[in-house]
């Protein structure tokens, strides 16, 4: 009985998508969906631009939620149920849903272990914070 572990841990890269388990710079990756394949430096650049824009959009959604929350009156007279089913609360809930969706997608993109996509996430969020962070007054 031979106890040998192959370098690729039994994953045949020719039979399906390969998931990197370490940080890399190669422009071969699958991002979020099996149809979003990065196959060249050009497609990597476009993917990084899209990811950075998604990071800016996440910060815009967070900013919008803060602005809406500051505009809401803090009336203690309204009942809990009336506040719970108010239009503003539904809008806040929808924006929170969008924020979570963007956040988890960006986390999963970072988890591709592509240094370029990871940098795009960080740069996009940083640009978004530069534009929207702390400016809800």
TrEMBL record:
**Location within or outside the cell:** Membrane
Question: Does the record's keyword annotation contain Transmembrane?
Answer: yes
Q: Where are the transmembrane segments?
A: 43-61, 81-102, 108-132
Which GO-annotated molecular functions does the record name? copper ion transmembrane transporter activity
Q: Which UniProt keywords apply?
A: Copper, Copper transport, Ion transport, Membrane, Transmembrane, Transmembrane helix, Transport
Q: Which domain of life is it from?
A: Eukaryota
Check the record and name the Pfam families matching this protein: Ctr
Topological type in the membrane: Multi-pass membrane protein
Pull one GO CC term from this UniProt entry: membrane
Q: Which family does it belong to?
A: Belongs to the copper transporter (Ctr) (TC 1.A.56) family. SLC31A subfamily.
Protein name listed in UniProt: Copper transport protein
Q: In which organism is this protein found?
A: Caenorhabditis brenneri (Nematode worm)
What high-level taxonomic lineage is stated for the organism? Answer: Eukaryota, Metazoa, Ecdysozoa, Nematoda, Chromadorea
């Amino acid at each position: 009985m031979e106890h040998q572990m192959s370098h690729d841990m039994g994953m045949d890269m020719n039979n399906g998508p390969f998931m990197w388990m370490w940080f890399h710079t190669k422009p071969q990756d699958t991002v979020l969906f099996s149809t979003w394949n990065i196959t060249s430096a050009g497609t990597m650049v476009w993917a990084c631009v899209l990811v950075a824009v998604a990071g800016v959009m996440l910060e815009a959604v967070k900013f919008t939620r803060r602005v809406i929350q500051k505009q809401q009156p803090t009336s203690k007279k309204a009942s809990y149920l009336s506040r719970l089913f108010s239009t503003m609360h539904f809008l806040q809930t929808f924006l929170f849903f969008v924020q979570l969706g963007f956040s988890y997608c960006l986390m999963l993109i970072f988890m591709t272990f592509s240094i370029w996509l990871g940098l795009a996430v960080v740069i996009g969020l940083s640009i978004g914070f530069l534009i929207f962070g702390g400016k809800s007054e």
